[in-house]
Each structure stands twice: as structure tokens, then as C-alpha cells.
Amino acid sequence: MAEEDKSTTSLPAPSEPLQVSGSQSGTHQPSQSTVEENNRSELISRARIFLRSSQIQSQDVFAKRRFLLDKGLNEHEIELLLRELPPQLPRVPPRTYPQPLPSGLLTLLIGLARLLTWVAGGSAALLLLYHKVLLPRIVRTAEARKSLKMHQINLLQKLNASLQSFKETQTQCYAPLPRPVPHKEHSTFASCHSLLDVLKQSETQNLNVNQLPQITLLRCAWEDFRALPGCADSNPRTEELFQVLESRIPWLVSDEGLAFERTLWDVLSTTPVFKELTSQDSPEGASAPVRWVYVPPEPVVPTAFISSLDSLSKVISTFQYPTTSSSYQYTLQAMTEFTGYISSNLYTPYRPPSIPGTTASSIEPADEMKKEIRALKGLVLNRRSFMPTIPRANIPSRQVP
To answer: In terms of Cα–Cα distance, which of 220, 267, 274, 208 is closest to 247?
Structure first.
């Protein structure tokens, strides 16, 4: 029995079957019920010993139940056996912890120090390269740009000063000259006092309507309106003025004419010779009609300088050059011809005089041409040697900063 208990308690797991002694199974008792009860009690005692073993207590409850059911116990007996067991404490795991790895702090510090050394060495090399190579070039470039900028600023200041002095000198010199009269009519159309006269003048000069001066058209339309019966002392409104223009010039009704009328309206509203007059007799609540009056520009009084120029031009136009020749004119002409003769014979080859009774050899055309070329060359050299020297101004060479 002790051997059976020992074999039962040495089971490692719930799956290990319980061993039953063969001696008892082989013997037959006289009473079968007594034998079954003894076997049943012996099986329960073995199951109790089995469940109380230290190796089985840590096993799973379901595995224990399944094992006991396989050995022949029922559910009621298994439940009673499990209740008889003392309460199990939580199992403490075995202290088989893995050994900690060796610390890599030293390796990390060494790598960090090596990295810092490389960074410091590279930074020192870069700083040395910057101070030895790049910094001097940057400084020279900055100084060159600064000097170039100062030079340009000085040149601009000199240019502004010269322009200012030129402007002041121009203002002083142009002060005596007459001022241009704004909106001055051409002398050809200034004598016209009606639109018919303007149209006749345009036909004479082959001009289109859009090429006529706008101020002349507006002035003549204003005069034509005042020439109407009952309108001698009244000024026209804008509609009346343009109605007179359209009645005299039918071209203004076309598309191009309407565009030209806009130009006439701009001239009418911006030219100072046409002024607006608002009538005071308009009813209350209604906008007062605008009437236009033509104010001729004041005549320009000529300055003393202009008067002197006009008198000088008149004197020059009536001046007659003297026709009497000087007493030295013939002498000057003779000396000029003599100088030309000497220059022409200066490079002429020597020819012996012809002997009476002999015929002179005929001169070939090539020799005659050479003679003329030598004479012309002598004349040019003679004039160049006697020409006065022209003084030339010394232009200082510009120094590049």
C-alpha cells in the first residue's frame, strides 16, 4: 500500500494515470457488494491523497476533474474531494529571472565623446577655412560694393547738381522769351468767325472735320448761335451749342462724329476760354441750366527781347550787301593763281627746252596723267604745310576708382 501511495504521489501532472494494485484485482471476495464498497473507498482515498499532493495542487481544476472522471469517480465524489482541499495560496513563481545584460553606458559615453570630438574638429576646421579664405574675400567684396555705391551716389549727386544748375541757367536764359499761349488758335483759323468759313478753309487745305481745331469749331458755333435772331445777347446751353454744330456739320451725327463730339465736350469743359454760367431764374427744385460764354484770351505783350529780335529781323531782311569790289581783290586772286601754278610745277620732271628746227616728242596720256597727279599732290602738301594748327583741348584720362 505504501508502494502504491508512493507511485501515486510521484505523478508529475494530471494526465498521469493512477496505478491500481494488481493483487486486489486478482483476488475474489465472497461478497461482491463488500468488495465494490472497499474498492470505492480505496479509490476515493487514493484520489484524496492524489489531490493533496504538492505537485497536483498547482494543476488546473478542470484538468483534475477530467483525470478523476477518467479513473471512475463521479461528479458528486469529485466535488466533495475538491471541497475537502484546503484553500490554495497563490503560487509564487520560481526565482528564475534572466540575468541582466551588461550596461552599455560606457560604450554610449565613448561614442558620444568620439562624436563630439569629430564635431569640434570639423567646426574648428570650418572656422579656420572661413577666417583664412572666405572672410577676407567677403570683406573685400563688401568694401568694393560700398566704394562702388559711394561712387555712384557721388555721380548722382553731381548729376543732380548739374541738372539743377542747368535748370536755373535755363530759367534765367529763357526768362526774356515769350511764354507759349495755351489753347492758341492757328492764324489761319483765327480769322474765321463762322462754321462756314472754317469749312471753306478746311476745303482749301484738304482737311477732314476731325482734323480741324476743336477750339475754333466751338468758338465759331458760339458766334453762329449769337448771330441767330433773338439770341444776340444770350449765351447758348450745351444742347443748343451742339445743335448748331450738327446743323452746320451733318457728319457729327454719324458714329465717328459722336466720338468726335465727346472730344469737343472734353475741350469745352476743360478749356479756360469757355466758362460756365448758371442762370438764377430757374424754378425751385429743378437743376439750373448751364450756359457757356466765350472769353477771348488776353493778347500777349511782347518783351523787350522779342521786340529787339523783331527789329533785327526786319533790318536783316532789308539789308543789302555792297556790290563794290575791294582794291585788293584782284591782287588776292592773282596771288592765288600764282601759288597754284607754283604748286603744280613743283613735282614736274625737268624737260629741256626744244631746239629750233626739231620737233618735240609727243606726250603720252599716261605721262600727262602722272603729271596731273604730281601737281595735285604738290598742291595738297603745300596747303597742309601752310594750314594753321587747330588747338585741341587736353582731355584728362578718367581714373577708375
So the answer is: 220
